[in-house]
Amino acid sequence: MPAFAAPTTLSGTHVRLEPLHASHAADLQEAVRDGELWQLWYTAIPSPQGMAAEITRRLDLQAKGSMCPFAVIDPATNQAVGMTTYMNIDAANRRVEIGSTWYRQSVQRSPLNTEAKRLLLAHAFEQLNCIAVEFRTHFFNQQSRRAIERLGAKLDGVLRSHQINPHPLGAGALRDTCVYSIIASEWPNVKTHLDYQLARVRA
User: Fold this and answer.
1) CB 65 within 8 A of CB 39
2) d(C-alpha 127, C-alpha 155), whole Å
3) Structural domain count of the chain
């Protein structure tokens, strides 16, 4: 039986999402050094030394059917500049979460993220026939929360004391997780909104 969210390549003008592979490790090690992203205490981003293990972890989850990981490629350089995934895949209820996403600092707040989410959402709603797509982030990750809200996702609620933070800088702290979603009936308006944002970049 084929996987609900099978590996595939999604291409746009500003970004290409391709199935994550061990060969992306060198690019991703370089990418994560841009801004020393693994130092952020409120999120879980692999260090350069931990990148190969993180790729293996994501591919293991893919083999189990709970994740479909992508390398985020900048078409201008053909280099991997980050990672993103469909995760917590619930095939029976046709739901996925878009998460475990990070980008090198130099491409943050660029059209790359908007288009990457546009591609993932379109594939989820139009090819996978999802009922809902979810996003989760740390309560204190204001940059992530603003980015999710700019997509048009709505806050479902906050899971208080949801997880114990494993990061050395916040070890033992309890994480409040903000849960957002876009449901199928909202997708046409969200798509129009994202296309408008991307058209402004091209204008």
Assistant:
1) no
2) 25
3) 1
**Residue 161, pLDDT score:** 84
Its pTM stands at 0.90
CB 132 within 8 A of CB 182: yes
If pLDDT is split at 50, 70 and 90, which confidence band does 110 have?
Answer: confident
**87-107 confidence digits (pLDDT tens):** 999 999 999 999 999 999 988
**Stretch 15-37: mean pLDDT, rounded?**
94
Q: Which residues of 164-203 are buried (b: 16+ CB within 10 A; e: fewer)?
A: ebebeebeeeebebbbbbbbeebbeebbebbeeebeeeee
Structure tokens at 5: 């969210």
167 to each of 39, 41, 68, 164, how far by Cα in Å?
8, 6, 24, 9
Confirm whether 84 is domain-assigned: yes
Please give the pLDDT value at position 174.
81
Contact 70, 83 (CB under 8 A): yes
- Give whole-number Cα distances, 46 to 8, 40, 41, 51, 95, in Å: 23, 10, 12, 6, 26
Give the domain CATH number at 121: 3.40.630.30
Higher confidence at residue 161 or residue 134?
A: 134
Q: Cite the DSSP H helix spans in the chain.
A: 25-33, 51-63, 111-122, 142-151, 187-202
Assigned domain for 3 exists:
no
Q: Is residue 64 part of a domain?
A: yes
* Structural domain includes residue 1: no
